[in-house]
Amino acid sequence: MNKSLKKYWRQIVSLCGLISCSLGICSNSQGVFFKAAAEDLHIMIGTFSMQNTVSYIIMSFCAMYVVRLTGKVKYRRLLLVGSVLTGMSFIVMGFTSNMIVFYILGILRGIGASTFAVAIVTIGIHNWFMEKTGLVTSLIFCTSGITGMLLPPVFAYIIENYSWRAAYVIMGIVSFLLILPALLTDFSLNPSVRNEIPYGMEKEGNRKQGRERGEKHGDMVILIALIFIAVIYNIILGFAQHLPSFGTDAGFGSRIGAMLLSMCMFGNVVFKFVSGTMSDKAGAVRVTMMMAGANIIALVSLFSTTNIFALYGAAFLFGVMYSVVTVCLSLLTMDFFAGESYNRKFPAISFAGGIANAAAVSILGYMYDFSGFYRAVLWLLIALHLIGFLLLVILNYRRKSQI
Question: Which three-class secondary structure state does DSSP give residue 54?
Answer without folding.
Answer: helix
